[in-house]
Write a structure and sequence with these properties.
Layout (H helix, E strand, L loop, with lengths): L8 E4 L3 E7 L4 E5 L8 H5 L3 H4 L4 E6 L15 H16 L4 E6 L1 H12 L4 E7 L15 H11 L3 H11 L8 H12 L3 H11 L20 E6 L8 H9 L3 E6 L6 H4 L1 H13 L2
Parallel strand pairs: 3-4, 3-5, 5-6, 6-7, 7-8
Antiparallel strand pairs: 1-2, 2-4
Protein name: Alpha/beta hydrolase
Organism: Amycolatopsis taiwanensis
GO molecular function, one term: hydrolase activity
């Protein structure tokens, strides 16, 4: 995987956030998922140089992940993280931005669009959380079970077992990524921070579950899903997009939960085409 070295910056608005930025043009904010050892760059480092050719691309460490400090979670994590996205836009003087979110990051993008619709332009959601109700799939997926296994007994072997469920082809994930994520996930306090995030998801939202609200999110949206996703199964894609008034759906073959990794070039081209189309 090709990566890029970009010095981190710190936003000190209502939320303190670490982020990387490259390129110029329409603003594109990249929101990562919630797995062990995750950061903005662990999700998107290889995509940033390509996307920066067209967009002012901002890769964020969401609260409690990467190098961004956590906050007390008085409501579900995605609602806090949505406030953090708006805080970052305020700090940067950006009125409106495109949002790209993978997994939990997709959930955060939807919460941002719901609570602050005027701050969001278009969205690209990659196997997003929060918008599917399990009808045929088990309530706890294989990927989620491996994630909880890691949290209860963290090790590099447990990390590899979890990563195996994130992709269709494990060879698509480099040793460098696995090592970096393992180091971050095993750092002091990292497991506790991740547990706090997942515990917050049990708190009731004042607005109801996200899947009950998607019909009220009218932003132009591209939902992408890996056909072989073992974290959030493909059936969730159809439930989600049927309710969203302006959502298109693209299914990637030979792809799991990380389209930006396994179908990198196709994902980047599809994203750019969707976000720049009239």
């Amino acid at each position: 995987m090709t990566t890029v070295e970009i010095a981190p910056k710190v936003s000190r608005g209502a939320y303190e956030l670490v982020y990387r930025e490259a390129g110029s043009g329409p603003v594109l904010v990249m929101l990562h998922g919630s797995g062990p050892g995750v950061s903005g760059m662990s999700n998107y480092a290889a995509n940033l140089p390509v996307l920066a050719r067209t967009f002012r691309t901002i890769v964020v460490d969401m609260p409690g992940f990467g190098d961004s400090p956590e906050v007390p979670y008085t409501k579900p994590y995605p609602e806090h993280a949505a406030e953090a996205v708006v805080s970052l836009l305020d700090d940067l003087g950006v009125d409106k931005a495109h949002l790209v979110g993978n997994s939990m990051g997709g959930f955060v993008a939807l919460e941002t669009a719901f609570a602050h619709p005027e701050r969001v332009d278009r969205m690209v959601l990659m196997g997003p959380g929060g918008i599917a109700a399990e009808i045929f799939s088990p309530p706890v997926s294989e990927g989620a079970r491996r994630l909880f296994d890691f949290m209860s007994s963290p090790s590099e072997a447990a990390m590899r077992a979890w990563v195996d469920t994130m992709v269709s082809n494990p060879a698509s994930v480099s040793e460098e990524v696995i090592r970096e994520r393992t180091e971050r996930a095993l750092a002091p306090g990292a497991i506790k921070r991740m547990r706090n995030v997942f515990a917050s998801l049990g708190k009731p939202s004042a607005h109801g579950p996200m899947w009950t609200r998607t019909g009220r999110i009218s932003h132009r949206t591209l939902v992408t899903w890996g056909r072989d996703d073992r974290m959030l199964p493909l059936e969730g894609a159809f439930f989600a997009t049927r309710r969203m008034p302006n959502a298109d759906l693209h299914i990637f073959a030979n792809c799991g939960h990380w389209a930006q990794v396994e179908r990198k070039e196709a994902f980047e081209a599809l994203l750019a085409e969707f976000l720049t189309a009239p």
